[in-house]
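To the wet lab folks,

You asked to see what we're planning to order before we commit. Fair enough. Below is the target structure as tokens, and below that is the sequence we designed to fit it. If anything looks off to you, flag it before the synthesis order goes out.
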């Protein structure tokens, strides 16, 4: 019997579509032994240091490390401390399992890919792969992305670029879009071995199950990071206009640390819609997040159509997650490329980046006298979901990985 390939998959968000369906596909066909190392997502939790990390071995046994303590320091110090802890946790957790060397290591995000490269250098893995799913903000821009302080923000982006350059030295790069590859080249990162494949996919069977859950007709859903570029500011602003026609409108928001949640509560308050917005904050289990979203009627993906918005280059998972749980998508014109698919399948509505126009479109879709249009979107959603089924996508991903690995 041929020995199975041992794969270590490093991720910051457990349950993310790339890991979720890569693991599912390879396990179903018994193609590899999968070990999952989840390092904490580096995020700001005001006045606290929060760490949730674990490693899962091939048999499903989980070894966890959790920290939640008072840490009254500035945001930059909190972020730096989290990064340092992540490197320590990388080796601490690997000691928990009895594997001397992995055949392949896949790292998501710049940090995960840097870890994969480091483990290859330390001869802990034979072959390293960077799952490259995003680009970085412009360090020289006048706008800030991570912090309100321009100097701290610039340092953070420079640190991310350093990690990205280390990760780009991996043996193979898995790009999720051509735009990300073009950005790398433009920024002096040239890689020899790479392939392109979508990473944000779904399981059509799960879509069928979620679609059976009754929708709360006046509830909108949102998942992801809490910031203007992801469309949260304009989404909240649009609620004040929707409220004029639908008084009981509710906006369910999943994601964000305590600091960002407090910030957006203030924004909701300033628009007079705090009572209409429900903040769930960061939810560790994606299944719990999906249960919340699946009860909404529409998924908000109002990405700011600005050239400085890094999300415009990537294969946005937010949209695919809405489709997975049966939500027609409200997306901005000039946003990510998935806009074209939504138009093709009629799986959502494309709107101008204007709060009043967004509100008008949503009120129209939710109108009791306009049920036929919403049902048409549900039909389009089903066809879109079929096309996004993970099996064909990850068959290709696995074939590409094996091709490069076996020829290395």
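Sequence we intend to order:
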């Amino acid at each position: 019997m041929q020995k199975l390939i041992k794969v270590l998959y490093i991720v910051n968000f457990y349950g993310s579509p790339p890991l979720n369906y890569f693991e599912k596909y390879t396990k179903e066909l018994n193609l590899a032994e999968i070990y999952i190392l989840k390092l904490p997502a580096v995020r700001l939790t005001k006045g606290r240091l929060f760490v949730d990390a674990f490693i899962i071995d091939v048999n499903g046994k989980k070894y966890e490390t959790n920290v939640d303590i008072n840490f009254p320091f500035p945001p930059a110090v909190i972020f730096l401390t989290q990064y340092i802890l992540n490197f320590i946790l990388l080796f601490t957790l690997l000691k928990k399992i009895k594997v001397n060397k992995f055949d392949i290591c896949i790292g998501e995000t710049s940090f995960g890919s840097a870890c994969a490269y480091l483990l290859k250098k330390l001869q802990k893995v034979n072959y390293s792969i960077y799952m490259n799913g995003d680009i970085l903000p412009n360090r020289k821009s006048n706008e800030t992305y991570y912090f309100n302080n321009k100097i701290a923000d610039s340092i953070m982006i420079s640190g991310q670029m350093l990690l990205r350059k280390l990760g780009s030295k991996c043996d193979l790069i898995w790009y999720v879009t051509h735009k990300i590859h073009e950005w790398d080249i433009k920024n002096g990162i040239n890689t020899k071995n790479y392939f392109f494949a979508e990473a944000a996919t779904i399981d059509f069977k799960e879509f069928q199950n979620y679609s059976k859950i009754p929708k709360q007709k006046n509830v909108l859903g949102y998942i992801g990071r809490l910031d203007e570029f992801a469309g949260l500011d304009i989404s909240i602003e649009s609620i004040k206009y929707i409220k004029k026609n639908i008084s009981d409108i509710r906006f369910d928001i999943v994601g964000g640390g305590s600091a960002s949640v407090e910030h957006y509560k203030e924004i909701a308050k300033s628009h007079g819609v705090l009572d209409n917005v429900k903040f769930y904050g960061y939810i560790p289990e994606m299944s719990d997040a999906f249960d919340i979203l699946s009860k909404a009627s529409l998924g908000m993906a109002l990405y700011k159509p600005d050239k400085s918005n890094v999300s415009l280059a990537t294969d946005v998972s937010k949209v695919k997650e809405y489709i997975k749980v049966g939500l027609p998508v409200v997306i901005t014109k000039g946003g990510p490329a998935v806009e074209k698919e939504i138009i093709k399948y009629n799986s959502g509505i494309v709107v101008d980046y204007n709060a009043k126009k967004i509100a008008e479109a949503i009120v129209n879709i939710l109108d009791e006298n306009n049920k036929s249009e919403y049902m048409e979107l549900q039909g389009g959603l089903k066809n879109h979901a079929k096309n996004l089924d993970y099996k064909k996508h990850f068959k290709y991903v696995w074939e590409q990985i094996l091709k490069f690995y076996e020829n290395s």
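Structural context that might help your review: The two ends are 23 Å apart (CA to CA). The chain has a mean pLDDT of 91.

Thanks,
Computational group
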